[in-house]
From TrEMBL:
Keyword terms of this UniProt record: CBS domain
Pfam families, per database record: CBS (PF00571)
SUPFAM superfamilies to which the protein is assigned, alphabetical: CBS-domain pair
Name by which UniProt lists this protein: Cyclic di-AMP binding protein CbpA
Domain of life: Bacteria
Sections of the chain in a coiled coil: none
Gene this protein is translated from: cbpA
Residue ranges of domain CBS in the record: 8-68
Record keyword Transit peptide present: no
NCBIfam families: CBS_CbpA
Length: 215
C-alpha cells in the first residue's frame, strides 16, 4: 500500500510561500483555522517546511516582531516529508507528533499532505468500518506458527482483515479478525467454539455496521 493512494492533493491544501510576511502567514492561518500549514517556494513546487500559528504569535509578543517581517526564520520541520511511492506504513513511524507530513513526488515536487485523518481512515478500513462485519479479538499464547494456526481455524469463512497487537510480547498476543458481515449468528458461534477448542481465547466480539463507514 503506497502513500499516493491516501493523501490530500495539493489543490486542496492551504499553504503560504516562503516570501510571505508574518502578517500574511498569520492571516492565512486565522482564515483556515489550522495550527500549521506548509511553506513552499518556486511557485508552490518545493516544500520548505511548516509555519505554526504559535510561532507567529511568539514572534509578535516575545520578540516584538513586525507585520512585514519575513517568515523564513520561523519555518520549522523542514524534514517532515514522505514520498508518494513510500509504503503508507512508513507514515506511522514518521508523523507521530506532527500535524501532517508533506508528500513529494519522484521529481521532489510538493504533491500534497498526509494527515492524521488519512491515517485513521486506513485504520478504520482495517477494522471493517467501510464494509461492516464482525470484529473478533482473539488472545493466543505466543508461539511459532500462531497466526497460521488461527487463520487455518477460520479458513472456511471470508477474512476481511487481520490486525495483530502486542507484537514482540513473549507470552500473549492479541489478534483482531475482521470477518464477513454476512455470517449468521449460528455460524459465528461455531467459529468461536472452534477457536477456543484450539486454545485461542475470544475476548470480545463487536459487530460493525456498514453504514458507519459509508457516511
Amino acid at each position: 500500500m503506497k502513500v499516493r493512494y491516501h493523501y490530500v492533493e495539493k489543490e486542496d491544501v492551504k499553504y503560504c510561500e516562503v516570501s510571505s510576511t508574518v502578517k500574511e502567514a498569520y492571516e492565512l492561518l486565522k482564515e483556515t483555522g489550522y495550527r500549521s500549514i506548509p511553506v513552499l517556494k518556486d511557485n508552490g513546487k518545493v516544500f520548505v517546511g511548516f509555519i505554526y500559528k504559535v510561532h507567529l504569535l511568539e514572534h509578535y509578543v516575545e520578540h516584538e516582531g513586525k507585520d512585514e517581517d519575513s517568515i523564513e526564520s520561523l519555518i520549522a520541520n523542514q524534514e517532515a516529508y514522505i514520498y508518494e511511492e513510500d509504503s503508507f506504513f512508513k507514515t506511522f513511524l514518521t508523523i507521530r507528533r506532527l500535524p501532517f507530513l508533506a508528500v513529494l513526488n519522484e521529481a521532489e515536487e510538493f504533491s500534497g499532505i498526509i494527515t492524521h485523518s488519512n491515517v485513521m481512515d486506513v485504520l478504520e478500513d482495517s477494522f471493517g468500518m467501510k464494509t461492516g462485519g464482525y470484529l473478533l479479538t482473539v488472545g493466543t499464547k505466543e508461539h511459532k506458527g500462531a497466526i497460521k494456526d488461527l487463520v487455518t481455524a477460520v479458513k472456511d469463512v471470508n477474512i476481511e482483515g487481520l490486525l495483530t497487537l502486542d507484537n514482540g510480547d513473549q507470552y500473549i498476543r492479541r489478534v483482531i479478525l475482521n470477518l464477513s458481515h454476512d455470517l449468521s449468528e449460528k455460524k459465528l458461534a461455531k467459529i468461536i467454539k472452534k477457536l477456543e477448542e484450539r486454545d485461542f481465547r475470544v475476548t470480545s466480539v463487536d459487530k460493525v455496521n456498514e453504514s458507519i463507514g459509508s457516511k
